[in-house]
Specification:
Elements lengths: L1 E7 L2 E7 L4 E4 L6 H10 L4 E2 L2 H4 L2 H9 L17 H10 L6 E4 H7 L6 H9 L12 E2 L12 H11 L2 E2 L2
Parallel strand pairs: 1-4, 5-6, 5-7
Antiparallel strand pairs: 1-2, 2-3
């Protein structure tokens, strides 16, 4: 995999690319070095050039500036199990500025009662922000959990002007 590191208003974000498309992204980190270490841990070995990174850095930069962005580009979600890929596809259906519960996602994929397994699949999302796992919250109205910590989850939801639904 190749990698690209970009600076945004949220912090440094790393992107990893396969031949298929964007395969992994880091959450915002305080330094480019920390991002590179994370990308290498994920298996990215060679820097990508600007052309190979495509429009992803610009889209993420605009997102961090609160601009309306519909992320576009090829995603490589092949590393997930069929169940995880179903969950990740459902996350892509959650509109910006809205949230959904783990239960909603479970029902959306036709697996009611599997909210706990959905939570594990959400936590394994390789493309945070792009595949908006931060928009999934607990049924009781709590934030649930987030790999980057609840403060970052809250920041992302506030940045989007999130309204709780579902």
């Amino acid at each position: 995999m190749k990698f690209y590191i970009c600076e945004t208003k949220l912090g440094w974000i790393g992107l990893a690319f396969s031949e298929i498309g964007l395969r992994a992204a880091t959450l915002p980190l305080p330094s480019a070095q920390a991002v590179e270490e994370e990308l290498r841990r994920l298996g990215a070995r060679e820097p990508a050039d600007t052309a190979e990174a495509g429009d992803w850095p610009r889209q993420l930069g605009r997102y961090a500036l609160r601009e309306m962005v519909s992320f576009s580009g090829e995603l490589d979600l092949s590393q997930g199990t069929p169940f995880q890929r179903q969950v990740w596809q459902a996350l892509l259906e959650i509109p910006r500025g809205e949230t959904r519960s783990y239960r909603w996602v479970a029902e959306r994929i036709g697996r009611p009662g599997s909210a706990r397994a959905v939570g594990q699949a959400v936590g394994a999302n390789p493309l945070p922000i792009v595949v908006p796992c931060h928009r999934v919250v607990a049924s009781n109205g709590g934030l649930g959990s987030y790999g980057g910590g609840l403060a970052l989850k809250e920041t992302l939801l506030r940045l989007e002007g999130a309204v709780r639904r579902g």
